[in-house]
Amino acid sequence: MVKLIVGSKGSGKTKKLISxxxxxxxxxxxxxxxxxxxxxxxxxxxxxxxxxxxxEYDVKGSDAYYGxxxxxxxGNYDITDVFGDATFKILCGKDTxxxxxxxxxxxxxxxxTANSDVVISLxxxxxxxxxPERVQKFxx
Length: 140
Prior knowledge:
Layout: E1 2-7, H1 13-27, E2 31-36, E3 50-53, H2 62-75, E4 79-84, H3 87-92, H4 99-113, E5 119-125
Parallel strand pairs: 1-5, 2-3, 2-4, 4-5
Helix pairs in contact: 2-4
């Protein structure tokens, strides 16, 4: 299952993500992972959450990010939740937003999680109306 936390810059997406991550860690019977670009969330998240700074792995682009998440899931069957912040920055770079690339990425993640109980929640910095129709069903 894939969930998108969508909103413009400064709308509270990251605060919502932090709350969701910490809540998931309280009820999860497995591992909770949070992926971000940088380490700004390290003081906001519970100690038992696996926080990953994606910059340390030089992941850039949708194929690389998909492969990274798929690799995490393949290497650890105890993962229950994966959270990702700043999705466009990882997929496209700092100031670029490719809505079609995001849509394709989300559809691939949805197929990846189809036969598992893993929930992938991502923040997306844009207005929901800017996203293609095919990903509207993933917006929470």
